[in-house]
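Milestone 3.1: sequence recovery, worked example.
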């Protein structure tokens, strides 16, 4: 009943090591692109920062053929990016639609990817990452394109 997929649990990556690396994970799909064609990707996003907005910020990058089209952040005041629409915990409504446009620079199999980045959280204190739910995209071309 939710928008789509959520990447892992809130506290996927706990660490006492201050030099610990961010955790990244992706959801991807491939499609056949035609050079010079314009493609429009439509998808829905929803996130939440629970009650106190003290969780660790999650970002999500929309990437096509290795090119970053959009960067979303659960709190742009902390990490720059377009605001992920925020809803209540475990919300099943409140997602918003977004579109990203891309022009193919080559023909062939092309990868569309949602890349999530979650910094490590501490074993105590702030122990959760912000949630992000996302739908798989629909791919279309603008009116008038063949």
């Amino acid at each position: 009943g939710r928008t789509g997929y959520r990447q892992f649990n809130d506290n996927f990556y706990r660490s006492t090591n201050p030099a610990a690396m961010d955790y990244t994970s992706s959801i991807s799909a491939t499609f056949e692109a035609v050079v010079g064609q314009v493609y429009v990707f439509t998808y829905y996003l929803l996130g939440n920062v629970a009650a106190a907005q003290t969780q660790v910020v999650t970002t999500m990058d929309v990437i096509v053929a290795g090119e970053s089209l959009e960067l979303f952040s659960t709190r742009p005041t902390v990490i720059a990016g377009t605001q992920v629409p925020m809803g209540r915990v475990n919300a099943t409504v409140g997602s918003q639609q977004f579109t990203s446009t891309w022009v193919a620079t080559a023909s062939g199999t092309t990868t569309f990817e949602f890349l999530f980045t979650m910094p490590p959280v501490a074993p105590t204190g702030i122990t959760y990452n912000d949630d992000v739910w996302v739908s798989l995209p629909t791919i279309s071309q603008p009116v008038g394109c063949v």
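The two ends are 35 Å apart (CA to CA). The mean pLDDT is 81.
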